[in-house]
Amino acid sequence: MTSATIQNQFIQICPAGAFYATVGSEPDDARALLLQLLSTDVSLPFSHELIMELTDLEETEAKELFDKLLEKNFVQLSDTPVRVVDDSIEKILPSLLANLSSTSKVALADDHGFCLGSTGYNPDHAEALCALAADISSLHERHSLLLNRDLSFMGESWGMLDPVGLSQVGFWVIHLGHQRFVLVIDQMPRLNHNNYVDLLSALARRYLDY
Fold this sequence. Notes:
By secondary structure, the protein is α+β, with helices and mostly antiparallel strands. It contains eight helices and seven strands, in the order E-H-H-H-H-E-H-E-E-H-H-E-E-E-H. A hairpin with a 5-residue loop joins strand 5 and strand 6.
C-alpha cells in the first residue's frame, strides 16, 4: 500500500527511520524529511501537501519519497494521533534510556564527553564512559575518509566485543544537525524500541539546528 491510497492518518516515525535520520550527517531528502518529522512537537496528519511543504519538492517527487519511506518501514501511518513526549529531557531520560539495553545500563554523552543522563551505571562509571565516548567519536572522525568514504561503512558507532563477537558495550553516535551525541549501551542494544524514537525526538526538539 502506498501513500497515494492512504488518507486521514497520522505520520509515525519507526525506529529504523529514527536510526537512519541520525546515523550520519550527509544530507539527503529522506534524512531531511525524517529529521523534520522527528523534531515536530505535535502529531502530524498525513497529506501530500504537507510532504511537499516539508520537502520543498514537487508533488510527484514528494509522493515518491514518502512512498519509499513507507516501503522501508522508516515511517508508518496511524489511525490515531501519535503521542509526543513533551516533558523536559532531564525528567524523561532515565525511563527512556533504560529500555535501550538488555541490562538497562545506558548513558548519553554529548560531543564533549559530558554525561547528559544515565541509568544502571555507577555515576562515576557513567561519566568515565561518556568521556571515553567522546574520544572514540573523535577517533572515528579523524579516520572517517577511510571508514565511511573508502570502505563505505555506514555510521560511526563502535563496540567492545567478547571472544565470540558479541557486544559488551557499544558506542552509538547520533547526529542532529551540527550536534553530535553518543549512546553508551551495555550488552545487547534495543534500538528497535519506541523509546529510541522518543529519545531522538526529544533531543531533536531541543538541540536540532538547521
